[in-house]
Model the fold of this input.
Amino acid sequence: MPFLDAIRLALAQIRVQKLKSFFTLLGVTIGVMFLIAVVSIVEGMGNYMEHDFAAKLFGINTFELRRRPDFGDATEEQWREWQRRPRIRDTDIEPVITALPSGTLWAAYGTDNVKMESPYSKPRTLSADAVDGDYFKIRNIDVESGRLLSPQEMAMGAPVIVIAVFCIGTNLMADGIAQVAQRGDN
Done:
C-alpha cells in the first residue's frame, strides 16, 4: 500500500470513528502531560537537594580536613586513637589554603563546648562553633538581621559572635550572651 493511500485510510477512519479517535487523542495527551509533570518534579527535587538542602549541610564541591571521621562504625580502640590526635591548628590549614587554586572559596570550622552563665538561669554548657573564611558563602547561609564578621574582625580575633535564630530560647537572655562575648574564651 502506497504511503499516500495509508494516510487517506487513516484520516477516513478518524472521521468514521470520531468518539474512539477523541478518546485516543485524549489518552495520549494526558499521558504526555503526566510524563512531563513527573520529569519536572524529579528534576526540581534533584535541584533542591543539590543546591538548597545539601549545600547548607555540606556545601557544593567541598572537602573537609578533619581530625577524625564524622560518621561510620568504629571500635572503641579506633575512637580513642582518633581522640588522641592533635587538634588541627591554623598553621596546619595554611599549606592547604596556599595549595588551592586561585579564587577558591575556603573556610575553617571548629567547635567546642563553653560554659554559659546568665543571672536568669543556672550555668549551662554551650556548643560554640568558630568559623573563618567564606563559611557562610560556601554553606549558602544568609543573615536575617545584623551583619557577618568583617575581615578585620577575623584578622584581629575580635570577640564577635553570630547567633543562630534557633539558639535563642526563653532562658537565654541578652545579658548571658554579652557575658560570653566579653569573656573572649575559646
Remarks:
- The chain is about 50% helix and 15% strand.
- The chain has two domains: 3-57, 102-183.
- Residues 18-57 form the longest helix (40 residues).
